[in-house]
């Protein structure tokens, strides 16, 4: 039988074997190694035909199917499995009838390529696709495979359940059909970048509509699926983040509003006033600074619950007086600020103040009894380029004058009078300047405990002033004066160094390792360069290890922080000092602060702890904050814990530490425990001597 030379095969680089057959299947010529590889008896194939040397019936059937196709169409192509000396092989076979050399005789040319490895890879890929399909369909996370135009090709059960649509309903939709209108534009922008391959993956938060009309905040994670020769499809994962988003929005709202009255807080009030001055250029803006007269008597005699009830009712009456463009905010314990746009003159501002006083003239229902309340009001008028600070300061100065003149009255800012500080203010400032040198400052300590076993993990150092005439004063009585007079830095330095010395010396249990001591840093301290040097100096002079010092900083202080403070905080954390974010949730942009600054500890403000068991919103916010801190590896301290049920809920939510009256009130240093037996022994000896 004629052999087909290897040079012929070399001209067919995409084949391994060549055959020439007669139209009835008799082998006329073959490449040299086909018999060796496939184990064929070529002489027999030359006499009886190719089907005679194929022993397996299934293999003969596959070849006969190709043979029928050849006779019907003149050519045939297919992949068949044949036996070889080394086992089964897959051959990609192409056959074609052509005119032979001898006249009109037709022959069949057959080429074959060994595709065994390709078939094995295809088989593995098919298995992988099946595994992927099972994983996709049973994934607890919503998923969809999308065409380049956004139409849904596949959707899993989790996505159908989440959105309330059936599989066939989703398959007839595009993703744009599910997006809320205000999300569609942003979606179109990044979808185009996905399908054209310029971005391999995108993550965005969008609102999706469900079958029953509800709106779900969803996190969409999309990745382009490569598809050679065409625009790729997109794999989409959808997570329902509605609860988390609502908690974040609630947290942001709480950061800008007073938790009790739901009025704008100091920060939002200041921002509103700044905007009003900028947007009403050429028109005057009026500010009324209001203070409830003798509110402390209500708190002390009727209790804090009655005081809170009174504040809420006052807020409601003030809010009812406003036009849509005006604002009233709660900026302090019993202080409210009203911002009035487009005020024509002092007379109009006085008229509004009179209406405010009249609205509060009716008694307030505090449950068991009615209570009358009066209001002192200071007013100021300003326009651009007056600043927020100038206008608020003027209204506050007018308010102080209203109080000095007998309360329950309105006074308008008068530059000829209100620029002079009162004699009492000056005297108190002079006393405060002497407090450090006179030894009148005191350090009080409140324990911070592990919620799991009540072991003391640290203490917070709190400043007190033992005034020679007014007695022991808490910070609320003098910190504002210290800030405005520039005395806050020496006061801050005193409490920092005293706390470090007490902790290093082991006083009041502060030295029991690994307990820490926490010291508050005021916004004024942080605003001035050199804070890191002060802390370093205090640590060196006291000998306290840096990791035992926690520096507590409020959100408000961090908001206005610049690059200098950020650099100094990082310098301190590199030394080992811990940074604690104090009163978390009462400032602004809380979540961004955790990413931007080197925070180690988050202290959840007491305003979230008090309603924890009765307010679903507070509970959801605390739960979200604790979960977020746990994921970020941050230690958490809940402030203001007064009851065991609060502690139990916080412990169940994953809060590690707590602080509050349940564990201990702020106290001054006590005599160290090791000295107690010695004192008792001295007393005993003294009694024996007298006997």
In brief:
The protein is of the alpha/beta class and 691 residues long. The chain has 28 helices and 27 strands. α12 packs antiparallel against α13.
Task: List the defining traits of the structure above.
691 residues, 8-stranded mixed barrel, 4 domains, single chain, Beta-Lactamase, 44% helix, Alpha-Beta Plaits, disordered C terminus, alpha/beta
Describe the protein:
- This protein has an eight-stranded mixed β-barrel, surrounded by four helices.
- The protein starts with a strand and ends with a helix.
- The longest helix is centred in the first third of the chain and has 23 residues, at 116-138.
- The chain has 28 helices and 27 strands.
- The protein folds into four domains: 2-114, Beta-Lactamase, CATH 3.30.450; 139-240, Beta-Lactamase (2-Layer Sandwich); 252-420, Reverse transcriptase/Diguanylate cyclase domain (Alpha-Beta Plaits); 439-673, Alpha-Beta Barrel (TIM Barrel).
- It is elongated.
- Helix 12 (295-302) runs antiparallel to helix 13 (304-320), helix 19 runs parallel beside helix 21 and helix 21 (531-542) runs parallel beside helix 23 (563-575).
- With 691 residues, it is α/β, with parallel strands linked by helices.
């Amino acid at each position: 039988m004629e052999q087909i030379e290897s040079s012929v095969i070399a001209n067919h680089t995409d084949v391994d074997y060549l055959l020439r057959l007669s139209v009835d299947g008799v082998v006329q010529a073959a490449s040299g190694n086909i018999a060796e590889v496939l184990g064929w008896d070529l002489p027999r194939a030359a006499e009886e035909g190719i089907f005679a040397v194929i022993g397996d019936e299934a293999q003969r059937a596959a070849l006969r199917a190709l043979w029928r196709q050849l006779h019907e169409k003149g050519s045939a192509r297919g992949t068949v499995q044949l036996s070889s000396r080394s086992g089964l092989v897959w051959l990609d076979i192409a056959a074609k009838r052509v005119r032979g050399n001898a006249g009109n005789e037709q022959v069949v040319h057959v080429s074959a390529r060994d595709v065994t490895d390709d078939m094995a890879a295809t088989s593995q890929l098919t298995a992988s696709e099946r595994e992927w399909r099972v994983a996709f369909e049973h994934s607890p996370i919503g998923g969809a495979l999308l065409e380049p135009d956004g139409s849904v090709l596949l959707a899993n059960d989790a996505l159908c359940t989440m959105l309330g649509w059936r599989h066939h309903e989703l398959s007839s939709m595009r993703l744009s059909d599910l997006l809320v209108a205000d999300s569609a534009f942003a979606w179109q922008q990044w979808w185009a970048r996905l399908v054209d391959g310029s971005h391999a993956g995108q993550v965005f938060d969008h609102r999706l509509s469900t079958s029953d009309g509800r709106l779900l905040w969803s996190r969409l994670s999309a990745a382009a699926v490569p598809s050679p020769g065409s625009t790729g499809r997109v794999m989409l994962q959808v997570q329902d983040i509605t609860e988390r988003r609502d908690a974040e929005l609630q947290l942001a709202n709480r950061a800008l509003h007073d938790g009790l009255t739901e009025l704008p807080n100091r920060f939002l009030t200041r921002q509103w006033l700044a905007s009003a001055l900028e947007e009403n250029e050429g028109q005057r803006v009026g500010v009324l600074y209001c203070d409830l007269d003798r509110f402390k008597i209500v708190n002390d005699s009727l209790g804090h619950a009655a005081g809170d009830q009174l504040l809420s009712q006052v807020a409601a009456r003030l809010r009812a007086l406003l036009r849509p463009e005006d604002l009233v905010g709660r900026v302090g314990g019993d202080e409210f600020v009203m911002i009035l746009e487009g005020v024509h003159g002092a007379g109009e501002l006085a008229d509004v103040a009179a209406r405010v006083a009249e609205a509060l003239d009716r008694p307030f229902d505090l449950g068991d009894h009615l209570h009358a309340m009066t209001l002192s009001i200071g007013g100021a008028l300003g326009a651009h380029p007056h600043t927020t600070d100038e206008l608020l300061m003027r209204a506050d100065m007018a308010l102080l004058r209203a109080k000095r003149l007998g309360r329950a009255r309105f006074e308008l800012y008068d530059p000829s009078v209100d620029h002079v500080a009162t004699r009492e203010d000056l005297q108190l400032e002079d006393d405060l300047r002497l407090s450090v040198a006179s030894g009148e400052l005191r350090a009080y300590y409140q324990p911070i405990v592990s919620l799991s076993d009540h072991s003391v993990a640290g203490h917070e150092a709190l400043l007190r002033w033992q005034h020679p005439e007014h007695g022991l004063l808490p910070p609320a009585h003098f910190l504002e004066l210290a800030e405005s007079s520039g005395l806050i830095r020496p006061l801050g330095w005193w409490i920092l160094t005293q706390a470090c010395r007490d902790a290093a010396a082991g006083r009041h249990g502060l030295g029991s390792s690994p307990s820490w001591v926490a010291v508050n840093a005021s916004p004024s301290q942080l605003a001035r360069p050199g804070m890191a040097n002060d802390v370093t100096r205090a640590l060196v002079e006291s000998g306290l290890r840096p990791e035992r010092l926690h520096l507590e900083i409020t959100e408000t202080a961090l908001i206005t922080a610049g690059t200098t403070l950020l650099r100094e905080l990082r310098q301190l954390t590199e030394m080992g000092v811990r940074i604690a974010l104090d009163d978390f949730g009462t400032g602004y942009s809380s979540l961004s602060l955790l990413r931007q600054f080197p925070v180690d500890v988050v202290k959840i403000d007491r305003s979230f702890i008090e309603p924890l068991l009765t307010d679903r919103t507070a509970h959801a916010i605390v739960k979200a904050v604790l979960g977020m801190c746990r994921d970020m590896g941050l230690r958490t301290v809940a402030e203001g814990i007064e009851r065991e049920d609060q502690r139990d809920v916080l412990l169940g939510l994953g809060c590690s530490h707590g602080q509050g009256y349940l564990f201990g009130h702020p106290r001054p240093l006590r005599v160290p425990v090791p000295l107690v037996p010695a004192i008792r022994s001295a007393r005993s000896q003294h009694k024996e001597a007298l006997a």
